[in-house]
Write a structure and sequence with these properties.
Number of helices: 0
Order of helices and strands: EEEEEEEEEEE
Shape: elongated
Strand content: over 45%
Radius of gyration: 14 Å
Distance between the termini: 40 Å
Number of strands: 11
Length: 120
């Protein structure tokens, strides 16, 4: 059984910062990429930031310069540092990992989601 467990969401004022963390555990052969997606009420789930096993990153245009993704390959963890938060960043944030769990394929796995609310 593979799990992605997230932590670090919460309520923050505009301009504030939060750090999200996600740990993957279970029968994991390899992780190609880890990342964060978010979904606001009534909207689709969109990519926020992603990092591959060689450290290549990509970010949504709306968060470039404000969010920083990092990864610890040895610990199977990924973190998202969010600065200069805006009300429009409010959403449920989901951890994602593209992993081989013994199937010889890289499949998508998801965490349960953590709420981030930016409001004064």
């Amino acid at each position: 059984q593979v799990q992605l467990v997230e932590s670090g969401g919460g309520l923050v004022q505009p301009g504030g910062s939060l750090r999200l963390s996600c740990a993957a555990s279970g029968r994991i052969f390899s992780i190609y990429a880890m990342g964060w997606y978010r979904q606001a009420p009534g909207k689709q789930r969109d990519l926020v930031a992603r990092i591959t096993s060689d450290g290549t990153t990509n970010y949504a245009d709306s968060v470039k310069g404000r969010f920083t993704i990092s990864r610890d390959n040895a610990k199977n963890t990924v973190s998202l540092r969010m600065d200069s938060l805006k009300p429009e960043d409010t959403a449920v944030y989901f951890c994602n990992a593209v992993m081989d769990t013994g199937t010889h394929r890289h499949d998508d796995y998801w965490g349960q989601g953590t709420q981030v609310t930016v409001s004064s």
